Amino acid sequence: MANLHISWLLLAQCLLLVTRITAKVPAVVVFGDSSVDAGNNNQIPTIARSNFQPYGRDFSGGKPTGRFSNGRVPTDFISQALGLRPFIPAYLDPSHSISDFAIGVTFASAGTGYDTATSDVLSVIPLWKQLEYYKEYQNKLRLYLGGNKANETINGALHIMSLGTNDFLENYYSYPGRSSQYSIQQYQYLLIGIAGNFIKQLYHLGARKISLGGLPPMGCLPLERTTNIMGGNDCIEDYNNVALEFNGKLNGLTTNLNKELPGLKLVFSNPYYIFLQMIRRPSLYGFEVTSVACCATGMFEMGYACNRNNMLTCTDASKYIFWDSFHPTEKANHIISDYVVKNVLAQFL
C-alpha cells in the first residue's frame, strides 16, 4: 500500500509539473512605441532612432540596439520573468529569424501611437502596420512550427501593448491638427476606440492573453519639466491628470472587453503609481536624480541629441530615473516591469 501511495504521489506531482509547463507563456508578442521598441526603427527612414552610443552602453556587450535606454526595456525583463529569453528581438532586425521570434518578438516603433496621425509626425510604423507585420509573423510561425503548434503558441502567448504617450505629447499638445478637431476628452475617446478595435483584431487572430499598458505620469518627464518654467520646473499636473483620466478609460475598456469576448484574459498594466512613487521618493529605490536625465544636460535631449561626446552625460545611470529626456534608465525599467509582473502578469505564470 505504501508503494501504491508513493506512485499516486509521484503521478500527482508529474501532473502538476505538466500543468505548470503547459500553462506557462510560450512567447511574448509586443506592440507599441519607444517604451518597447528593440530596434525596428533602425530599419526605416526616420530620425526617431537610438542605434548609436551612448544608448545601449549597459546592454549586453555594451552595444546600442535601437532601444531607447542605456540597457534593456520593460518587455525584456518581462520575457525573462516568464522564463523566456532576457531580451525580445525586433521583428525587422535582419540578424534574427522566425526561430528567434517564435518565443518573443516586438513590432513596436519609437514615436508611434494609437492615432495614425501620431506615427506620421516622425514617419514611423503605425499601429495598423504593426498588426500587418503580426499577421505575416503568424504565417511564418505556422510554416516553422506547423499549424497546431503555432496556434497553441499564439493562444498561449502574452501579447503586450505599450503606447499612448506620444499621442498626447508628440501629437495633440504639439500640433494644432487634433487639438483643433477634438477636445482633450474627445481625443481620449477616439484613442480608446482605436485601442478597443485593435484588441478585437488581436482576439480574432487567436490572441487570448493581452496586457494593455497604461500611461506613465507624463507631466514628470524631464522634457516637460524643462518647459515648465512658470511652475518651477516641477511636473506638469495637467498632463499627469490627463494620463490618469486616460488610464481610467483604459481600465474600463479592459472590463468591457473581458465581458464581451469569450475566453479573453485582458489585463490592465498600469505603471503610473509605481513610476510616480519613484519620482516622489527616489531614495526608496536607490535613485538620486529625478528631474533631469543622464544624457547630456538631461533636460531636452533624446535620439540624436543624446550623443556620447557630450561631456555632461552621467557616468552612473543607476542613480538616475531617466536616461534621456523622455525614457527611463534600465534600472527604472527593471523596477517598473518587476512591479507589473508581480501585481498584474503573475496570473499568467
UniProtKB/TrEMBL annotation:
Coiled coil: none
Pfam entry (one): Lipase_GDSL
The organism's place on the tree of life at top rank: Eukaryota
Entries under CDD domains matching the protein: SGNH_plant_lipase_like
Database matches in SUPFAM superfamilies: SGNH hydrolase
Gene Ontology MF, one: hydrolase activity, acting on ester bonds
InterPro entries: GDSL (IPR001087), GDSL_lipolytic_enzyme (IPR050592), SGNH_hydro_sf (IPR036514), SGNH_plant_lipase-like (IPR035669)
Assigned protein family: Belongs to the 'GDSL' lipolytic enzyme family.
Name by which UniProt lists this protein: GDSL esterase/lipase
Organism: Prunus persica (Peach)
